[in-house]
Amino acid sequence: MDHIVIIGNGISGVTAARHIRKLSDKRISIISAESEFFFSRTALMYVYMGHMKFEHTQPYEDWFWKKNRIELVNAYVKRIDHKEKTLYIKNGSDISYDKLIIATGSKPNKFDCPGQDLKGVQGLYSKQDLDGVEKYAPDNRTCKRAVIVGGGLIGIELAEMLRSRDIPVTFLVRENSFWNGVLPSRESQMINEHILEHHIDLRLATNLTEILPDENGRAKAIRTDKGETIECDFVGLTVGVSPNIDFLKDSGIEIGRGVKVNRLLETNIEDIYAIGDCAEQREAIGNRRPIEAVWYTGRIMGETVAQTICGNKTEYKPGHWFNSAKFLDVEYQTYGWVFSERVRKDSERHFHWRHPKEKICVTVAYNAETRKFLGINTFGIRMRHEIFNRWLTEERNVEYVMEYLKDANFDPEFYSKYETDIITEFNSVMGTRIVPKKKSWKRIFKTT
Ligand SMILES: Cc1cc2nc3c(=O)[nH]c(=O)nc-3n(C[C@H](O)[C@H](O)[C@H](O)COP(=O)(O)OP(=O)(O)OC[C@H]3O[C@@H](n4cnc5c(N)ncnc54)[C@H](O)[C@@H]3O)c2cc1C
């Protein structure tokens, strides 16, 4: 019987294992150094914030693995010998495989800053990182101030976590507006305001130059390129992540920034595949990046590789881009492509609406010539994924999207609705006379 070995028990590795089990009777082992059982990385912040216990981040009961004959090995793979089809384990026995899936995820980036290896300086990625935050920033007596470096999604999550325990936070962001490489400027500006209103000391266009130690080798202050010294007891480095593949150097497996794969998620070595955050597409798919460090693409890759391994060769086809995140208490969703001014093409135009008082806004991207709808960002309004997926596939124009916008709203019934305001503004800016269609459940749930 084929032995399928998966390195990494994150969403991609575990999804692959579950689907291989659904499709076959193969022997399956998952090896992970981080935790015995799979947990939801995206929920780590809620453990620190007291909304749930760590056990609650584990989507499957402990008996699930035995029942489904998925062997779990809590160990670190230090080397792969693909000629012998053998994995060498740190402090453990070798493991042989017939087919291998590399699903080793990401690691937080460092950037050669003096002091980055001091105690109390860390990223936020793993269970061990969560333990580190708990140790060095348990409360505002032990941690009188925290400094977070790097203005992305993980940085703002860490800021929210620390603020939930009333720890003063200084947030250093290299760009002159938060996440403006991704968000259009008016959205980025709104999030700057929101961060400041949450009493986070946001310092835009500011770089970390050095972290200073105390006599015990623990961080006690940071210096910025503006010449300031800021005292602190904890430094969160959240300057992005990169594939966790150092152990693959000299393995013969082709690596770039990640493990190079084709559309079938195959590496250059027979019977070795790579999925999730650590996989790098040889050729990017459409506007997507070759490496996609997001939860749902890891899940899709896991399902896809399971098909191929079980004899049904299947290409990775992630469909239309979408994602969601949270900026403190503002929910953000994106469907299709809405590029920031820094990267957007001349043909991409934006219609933007913002609520006069609340942190609620919408940006709709469309092609200036064809009027084709390209994508939407929403803040503070929840939208229906299937509807935008359908409209993107049907290549609807922006006027159609406005006319039927009420169908896309996914907020609970008792929430205020803003489609009428949005369309009124659209008509006024564009000189159109769109009359919004009433929400129709029949249209929403139509299958073709
Ligand atoms: C705080 C945080 C919040 C996030 N929020 C979101 C979000 O809201 N939405 C979203 O889409 N994405 C989010 N992400 C990203 C998302 O969690 C990742 O894209 C996803 O978890 C990656 O899954 P994976 O299976 O590829 O790898 P991972 O979950 O990283 O799993 C890989 C596992 O392999 C183990 N491993 C690595 N090397 C070895 C080795 N040599 N031997 C043994 N084991 C090894 C690692 O320790 C790890 O346990 C967030 C990430 C973080 C850190």
Describe the main β-sheet briefly.
5 strands, parallel
Number of continuous helical runs: 12
Low-confidence residue ranges: none
- DSSP, total strands: 25
Helix content: 10-25%
Question: What radius of gyration results from the CA coordinates?
Answer: 24 Å
Numbering strands along the chain, what is their spatial order in the largest sheet?
3-2-1-7-19
List the ligand species: flavin-adenine dinucleotide
Q: Termini separation (Å)?
A: 42 Å
Tell me the structural class.
Answer: alpha/beta
| Binned strand content | 25-35%
- The pLDDT mean sits at 96
Overall outline: globular
Describe this structure in words.
With 448 residues, the protein is an alpha/beta fold. The protein has twelve helices and 25 strands. The chain has helices at residues 11-23, 44-48, 63-67, 127-136, 153-164, 185-197, 295-309, 385-393, 398-403, 405-408, 419-430, 441-444, and strands spanning 3-7, 27-32, 70-74, 77-81, 86-89, 95-96, 99-102, 106-108, 121-122, 146-149, 169-172, 201-203, 208-213, 219-224, 229-231, 234-237, 241-243, 259-261, 272-274, 279-281, 322-327, 330-336, 348-354, 361-367, 373-379. It has a five-stranded parallel β-sheet with strand order 3-2-1-7-19. Strands 9-16-10-11-12 form a five-stranded parallel β-sheet, covered by helices on one side. It has a five-stranded antiparallel β-sheet with strand order 21-22-25-24-23, sandwiched between helices. Strand 14 (219-224) and strand 15 form a beta hairpin. Helix 1 (11-23) runs parallel beside helix 7 (295-309). The two termini are 42 Å apart. The mean pLDDT is 96. Bound molecules: flavin-adenine dinucleotide. Flavin-adenine dinucleotide binds at residues 7-13, 31-34, 41-42, 44, 76-77, 103-106, 124-125, 154, 157, 244, 247, 276-277, 293-296, 298, 323, 325.
